[in-house]
């Protein structure tokens, strides 16, 4: 029966890391809630992919910086399947601003980015907390970034927001145990549509090669690479909580420039 299958909610999952994560979960026998903010067409394509892999899937539109949307996502899973076993806080936002251009980043930019990258993860956790604890083996994975450790990335506001997400991961790991484990993944450069939209295909490819040249594995990451680590933290790692797991080919060991 479908209600015996485990259920995951993945925010920001109509493309990139989120889409790869729900596909991997579907492949492994999970039912999934797919969240998107803009493109219903892209979300429904991911739903179709998951169904083809044998899962039940539903797409829910909404901006997870809105607490009502977070509650709606949780209730959708509970109404359809009666359970929530995993939550992946993947939805993210940024503004591309060179770090030295302080005047190009406003307080409003910080608030908007924090609402999506930090506050939404707290709200989603709160909305799902009771069901995750009832599961008995619940898991939360927050999608952070090596920018949080290096002070690099698309903007100072983005790096700072991911640093806050890391701190919140520690706090939630303490209060959600013993029933729920809470960890974060910290990707380096990931080849996603976000990068192409921001830089163009040629510059995005150059960025990927530059990152690869600075790490021991000589590789940048695909969304599927990150998804595999997320799913490992959900399905495996039974005694792992409060951890920041780098998924970057070892880039974090290089000296940042």
Output the structural class: alpha/beta
Number of domains: 1
Outline: globular
Q: Return the CATH architecture.
A: 3-Layer(aba) Sandwich
Number of helices: 9
- The chain-level mean pLDDT equals 92
CATH C-level class is Alpha Beta
- Number of E-state strands: 7
Strand order across the largest sheet: 3-2-1-4-5-6-7
CATH topology, by name, is Rossmann fold
Biggest beta sheet attributes: 7 strands, parallel
CATH homologous superfamily - what is it?
NAD(P)-binding Rossmann-like Domain
Helical amount: 40-55%
Q: Ranges with pLDDT <50 over ≥5 residues?
A: none
What is the succession of H and E elements?
A: EHEHEHEHEHHEHHHE
Distance between the termini: 53 Å
Q: What is the alpha-carbon Rg in Å?
A: 17 Å
Strand content: 5-15%
Q: Can you give a write-up of this model?
A:
The chain is built from nine helices and seven strands, in the order E-H-E-H-E-H-E-H-E-H-H-E-H-H-H-E. It has helices at 16-27, 40-52, 67-81, 107-135, 147-150, 156-176, 193-199, 201-212, 223-235, and strands at 7-10, 31-36, 57-61, 86-89, 138-143, 180-187, 244-247. The protein has one domain (2-249): 3-Layer(aba) Sandwich (Rossmann fold). The longest helix is centred in the middle third of the chain and has 29 residues, at 107-135. The model has no long low-confidence stretch (mean pLDDT 92). Strands 3-2-1-4-5-6-7 form a seven-stranded parallel sheet, with helices on both faces. 47% of the residues are buried. The chain has 257 residues and is α/β, with parallel strands linked by helices. The N and C termini lie far apart (53 Å).
């Amino acid at each position: 029966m479908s209600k015996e299958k485990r259920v995951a909610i993945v925010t920001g999952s109509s493309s990139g890391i989120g889409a790869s994560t729900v596909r991997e979960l579907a492949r492994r026998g999970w039912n999934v809630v797919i969240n998107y903010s803009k493109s219903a067409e892209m979300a429904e394509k991911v739903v179709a992919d998951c169904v083809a892999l044998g899962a039940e899937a539903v797409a829910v539109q909404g901006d997870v910086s809105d607490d009502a949307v977070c509650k709606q996502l949780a209730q959708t899973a509970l109404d359809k399947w009666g359970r929530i076993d995993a939550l992946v806080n993947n939805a993210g936002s940024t503004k591309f601003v060179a770090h030295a251009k302080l005047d190009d980043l406003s307080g409003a930019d910080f608030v908007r980015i924090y609402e999506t990258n930090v506050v939404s993860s707290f709200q989603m956790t709160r909305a799902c907390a009771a069901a995750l604890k009832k599961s008995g083996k619940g898991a939360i994975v927050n999608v952070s970034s090596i920018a949080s450790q290096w002070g690099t990335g698309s903007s100072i506001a983005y790096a700072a927001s991911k640093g806050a997400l890391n701190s919140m991961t520690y706090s939630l790991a303490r209060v959600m145990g013993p029933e729920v484990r809470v960890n974060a993944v910290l990707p380096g450069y990931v080849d996603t549509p976000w990068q192409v939209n921001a830089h163009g295909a040629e510059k995005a490819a150059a960025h990927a090669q530059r990152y690869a040249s600075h790490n021991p594995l000589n590789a940048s990451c695909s969304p599927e690479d990150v998804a595999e680590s997320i799913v490992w933290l959900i399905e495996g790692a039974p005694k792992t909580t409060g951890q920041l797991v780098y998924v970057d080919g070892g880039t974090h060991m290089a000296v940042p420039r």
